[in-house]
Structures are given as structure tokens and as C-alpha cells.
Amino acid sequence: MPGFFDDSWFWSMCQFFVLLCTLIIVVRQLGIQRQANMLATLEAMRRNWKSDTFESARKVVCQGFLKNNVKIDKSEEIVLGFFEDMAIYWEKKVLTIDLLWEMYSYYIEHYGAMLRKNIKEIRNQKKDKTFFSNFDKLYRSICEYSKKKGAYPGKTQDELELFANSEIMGR
Length: 171
Hints:
mainly alpha; single chain; about 0% strand; elongated
């Protein structure tokens, strides 16, 4: 009399469940790895943002804004390059819009509004509309996300000047 465990259907079913469990574990592990990569990226970005080089560049950009400077010099390139990299990480799905909104929307909204003229100027100067286009997309998306969250993303001239002065003072 053949035993219960001799039937091939039973072993096929066991293999199916083992494969299913393995697949679930692999998918969960990939999710955990993605989060770890996101955290590592955010930490590297935070270190850059808080570095002496970046703080100096941010002050120069804000001083230039208060003087109506529309050129893009080294300091503007540093700040815009940071946001351009951030936008690329977002587009490649390394970072999510909700995470960027929580951590950087304040800066994205202010620097995006402050540097619009500078970006327009370099695009006209170089006759290339792609300069800082990734940051442009991120800025618009963050503003839309802010509206969905019930926050007001538009910045008045007074708000931008207040922000610039607070960045210059290091607050």
C-alpha cells in the first residue's frame, strides 16, 4: 500500500510552498535593501548640505539673490548641482517624493523660487533649455505635493528675502 508521502502531488505542493516562501523573503529583502540605500543616500546628502563648502555657497547664493544677481557662478552651481543630483535620485526612484518633501521641501521651494531667474539666464546664455531641468521638474513636483499636503508652496518676495537673510545668518 503506497504511503501518503509517496504521491508526487504532495512533493510538488511542498516545492511550490518552499518556492513561494523563498520568493516572499527575497522580495522583502529587496525592499529592506532599497530602504538602506535610500538612508545611505540621504545621509550623504545631509553631510554635503551641512558641510562648510555648502554653507558658504548657500550664503553667497542668498547674498546674490538679495542683490538681484542672475548669474550662475561657482556657488550657484554647487547649490543647483546638489538639487539636480537630488532630482536625478528621485527620477531613478532612489528617493521618493514624500521623503524629499519631508526632509528638503523647505529648501527646494525657496531655492527653486530664488534661482528661477538664474536658471532662465543660463539657459538663454547657453541656448540650452536643459540646464537644471531635472531640478525644475523636482521643484514643480514638490510644489504640487505641498499643495496636496495642504501647505502653500508659493513664496512671496518678502518670504524669499527672509529666508535668504536667515541662510546668511546661519539659522
